[in-house]
Every structure is written in structure tokens, then in C-alpha cells.
Amino acid sequence: MEKLRVLLVDDEIMIREGFKRLFDWEGHGCQVVGEAADGMEALTKMDDLNPDIAIMDINIPIMNGLKVIQLSRIKHPDTAFVIVSGYDDFSYCREALRLQITDYILKPVNYEEFGTCIDNLKIALFQRKAPTQTNVPEERTITGITRYLQEHLAEDISLSVLAEEFHLSSQYISQLFKSEIGVNFLAYLTNIRMEKAKKLLLSTSLSISEVSERSGYGDYRVFTKVFKKSEGITPSQYRRDFWESGEKNL
Predict the structure, then answer these.
(1) What is the three-class DSSP state of 158?
(2) Residue 2 phi/psi, 5° resolution?
(3) Using an 8 Å Cβ cutoff, are 220 and 226 in contact?
């Protein structure tokens, strides 16, 4: 799988150096191709490098990170943005959701959490590009499998279920996820279930138990545990923070 190109945007050089030296980009299938210290430089680097991923601080000189993302979306709709900020304010998270930012990580950075974020990004980028990647058998197979997962997300899904459905071995399917997407099967399945859950929490009035079932978790207690590990807060808190933030801005 081709390495993902990463742009680092932060006005603090020590933060940028920390990202480069303390995180295993190679191990996560990425390479840092550029850096920027302010909003205007970030826009220029976006045009010059067209990165797959931009790691963006909000509080940068000349033009803040959210404005940079808003403008960059016009020319670079396929770039995935991750905000890394010292501001623990859900109003920023709400704006990030509006701009379809992939993740919002607080400083100081937990690099294990950041690694999960990058792996999830690889999943999202694969899903976005998958419809055009049908020129080899492996890509056709993994695209069919991921489409099946989306359509049967509420069901009990495992490698053995997929093996029976697609007449392939569990080991082969497991290897496909690593080679074609860059993450293991369970990480991929958990990611798309969490994305489904977040959409249901913010767009419906379904109970947590109902959201749990529609996201593929028969036991809402297991769902709550997985959600908190993924998002840092419980499903009910996630929903409550979103709506409370919206009410404050009315």
C-alpha cells in the first residue's frame, strides 16, 4: 500500500519536531512531506504538496487553522484533516464536525491515541478511493467485503462469516485488510461501527440501547465501553455535549 503523505502545521517548532521524532510514521504507512508555521504558509504548502493528511493546530498566526481548512477544502477536497489543539472546548469540536474534520486531539499528544487516529484515517481514505480501485482482483475483493460490512453492520460479523460469504479463507481476508487498507479487520470494523454510532447519536433521538444495536453491539454495556475507549467520552455525554454546545451558540 502506498504511503500516505502528511503535512504538519503548528507554529511551535518543538511540537512539529515531536511529531516527527516521537511518532512512528513509517510503521503506520505514512511519511511527513512538509511543515508550516502559520496559516498562509499552510495554504501554500497545501497547494505545493497536496497531502493526503494535514495535521493542523487551531491557534496559528496570520490565519487560524479552521479557516485554513475551510479554504483548503475548495482545492483539496480529498485531504483528511486532523486538529491537534490545546483548547478543550466542544464549540471547536462542533465546528470541526461541520468542516468534516476527521479527528480532534488535545495537546499534549497521546501518541498511542494518535496512532489509532492515523489508522482510522487510512480506513476512511480507502473507503473514499475504493470505488475507483477496481483494476486488480485483490482490490475488487476488499471493496466487495467493505461494502458488505457497511450493509450488514448491525449483524454479528466475523472473519469466519466473511469467509463463508465470499468463499475465501479467514486468513486470506485478514491479510487483505492489512495489505490493502493497512489495518487489521477488527480495527476496521470497530471504526465503521463507531462512525455509524456517532451519526445516529447526533442525528436521531434513538436511545443508547437502540444506537448500540444498530451499530452492531447487542450489549449496550460493551458498546459504551468501546465508544468511550474510541472517543474519550460515553455515548450519552457525546450527544449531550453536542446539543449543549448548539444551544449556547443560538
Answers:
(1) coil
(2) -65, 140
(3) no
How high is the pLDDT of residue 158? 93
What domains appear along the chain, each with residue ranges and CATH number?
Answer: 4-123 (3.40.50.2300), 133-182 (no CATH), 188-248 (1.10.10.60)
CB of 212 closer than 8 Å to CB of 206: no
5 pairs with which residues across the strands?
Answer: 31
In the sheet that 4-9 helps form, which strands lie side by side, from edge to edge? 30-36, 4-9, 53-56, 80-85, 103-106
- Grid coordinates of 32: 511527513
pTM for this model (two decimals): 0.61
Most confident of 41-50, 112-121, 179-188, 196-205: 41-50
CA dist 175 and 149 (Å) reads 17
Cα–Cα dist 198/193, whole Å: 9
